[in-house]
From TrEMBL, chains A, B, C, D, E, F, G:
Keywords: Chaperone. Seems to function only as a co-chaperone, along with cpn60, and in certain cases is essential for the discharge of biologically active proteins from cpn60. The keyword Lipid metabolism does not apply. This is Protein groES. GO terms for molecular function: ATP binding; metal ion binding; protein folding chaperone; protein-folding chaperone binding; unfolded protein binding. The keyword Chaperone applies. GO terms for cellular component: mitochondrion. Belongs to the GroES chaperonin family. Forms stable complexes with CPN60 in the presence of ATP.
Amino acid sequence: MAKRLIPTLNRVLVEKIVPPSKTTAGILLPEKSSKLNSGKVVAVGPGLRGEAGGNHIPVAVKEGDTVLLPEYGGTQVKLGEKEYHLYRDEDILGTLHD
Amino acid sequence: MAKRLIPTLNRVLVEKIVPPSKTTAGILLPEKSSKLNSGKVVAVGPGLRGEAGGNHIPVAVKEGDTVLLPEYGGTQVKLGEKEYHLYRDEDILGTLHD
Amino acid sequence: MAKRLIPTLNRVLVEKIVPPSKTTAGILLPEKSSKLNSGKVVAVGPGLRGEAGGNHIPVAVKEGDTVLLPEYGGTQVKLGEKEYHLYRDEDILGTLHD
Amino acid sequence: MAKRLIPTLNRVLVEKIVPPSKTTAGILLPEKSSKLNSGKVVAVGPGLRGEAGGNHIPVAVKEGDTVLLPEYGGTQVKLGEKEYHLYRDEDILGTLHD
Amino acid sequence: MAKRLIPTLNRVLVEKIVPPSKTTAGILLPEKSSKLNSGKVVAVGPGLRGEAGGNHIPVAVKEGDTVLLPEYGGTQVKLGEKEYHLYRDEDILGTLHD
Amino acid sequence: MAKRLIPTLNRVLVEKIVPPSKTTAGILLPEKSSKLNSGKVVAVGPGLRGEAGGNHIPVAVKEGDTVLLPEYGGTQVKLGEKEYHLYRDEDILGTLHD
Amino acid sequence: MAKRLIPTLNRVLVEKIVPPSKTTAGILLPEKSSKLNSGKVVAVGPGLRGEAGGNHIPVAVKEGDTVLLPEYGGTQVKLGEKEYHLYRDEDILGTLHD
């Protein structure tokens, strides 16, 4: 059975969104239109701890956010059958909204 | 449909201004006059978080600013048909005014 | 007789979980399913000391946690017959839960 | 028309002083006497922001100052017909006075 | 006559424990069982000074502790006939207890 | 006419003391006796600014001090006919007294 | 005449103790017994300045201390006929006591 991962500190667990390589009607999409590297935030850590020791610096994104990911970086993690990636919150470029 | 991007932390989303390569009257401009690397700020992040955890250090530029960009750096992002660039606010050289 | 180790500062003593290479029924598992690099936290240090000198920044994991470990890093330690690994808490990727 | 540039953070916009290569009377000056690399401060940024987020660390020079510039460094900027250089205030060596 | 050394700042003076290469009954021990790199803390410094200037950040180990040492590092010191090693407290891996 | 330079931040303007290569009586001195690299402090900056933004960290030396200079480093500056050197105050080794 | 040097910041002026290469009775000592690299503290600086600007972080050793020196590092200074070495206080390993 797949385990659940709670990231440490300011780490963010992301499930990458694989862009469709053809439209629902079956037309093949040119490579250029599938370039946006995005994902869904599955879990976030509690944040880095400040020097004072008692406080957490909140993580820049939250569970459920659709995020723009950097081209490189991130640590691949496999939980059960699914593949995820871990990022430090400062490496996530932004959140995507419709 | 194009998605909207809200940058994280102190990131700034910029749409580069492509300088005209000829005047409106059709006269070709010499290469030198098109050198200023500028752009329009489309969106800014909430700012870096201070060590205290609760505060944000405000971003140095704001939406709508015309900014002078460094010659190198920035991350290319494509949203829908349009191409943008992401910069850390400390990499933006200044704001341009008429 | 095996000695007990109390880690210093933000170090974490971990006993790695060796994934079974065949099922209890004796069927050999393909290499891919044994990939998750995890361990059990056996002991944690008191945390790094803040600049003020009197306070400790709490360690991000606690004794008994099942943790996801980075692919590289960690210091091998042998206590009695058993082999353990020491990690800085910031290098532990997250905690695993059923 | 030339745009006006307001530098970000602790950046300083400088117009370099080109030393005359001959005296007003037309006598050619030896290379050695034209060595001082100086400029006029045209605009300064608001200063770096402190960790607290609300304050600015004032810039070390001010508009109108004649400054001694380092031999290397600075970013060339062309506004209209004129050429300027941007420096971080900590790279400016000092102010020159008659 | 041997001098006594009081370490500066967060330095720790350690006398390494040389593991017996045979048992008391004279049986040679295999190389593997002598692998634990440990030592006895002979003296500790007052700790690093905090930025405030008046305070010391306490050293992570104390005189008399049996400590686990890193495989590399440490500065060899000879006082009289005996050989010691100096470590920064952050390089000591943990304390050993029966 | 020679300009006066006020250094920025923690910079120190020094006029190097050229040791006499022969005594006043005309006896040539051996190379060894001219080795001390010292200078006279001509001007000092206001000091680095602290993070709070309003305060200056005072410069470690003052105008008129005779200082011991490091063997390497320093920026050569020519003001009028005279040659000076700029140092960061932390690079000056000490002050010399009779 | 020899000048007196007052070190800046956290610098420490040390006169190295040259270990006797033979005993007072004239017996040559083996190389091993002359290995301890120690010195006498001749002068200390006021200490590094804290960020607040008004305070000094006290130097870890004081005038008259016999100190254990690192094998490498230190800046050689010649004052009059005597040779000294300058160290940053954090590079001094400890103080030696009978």
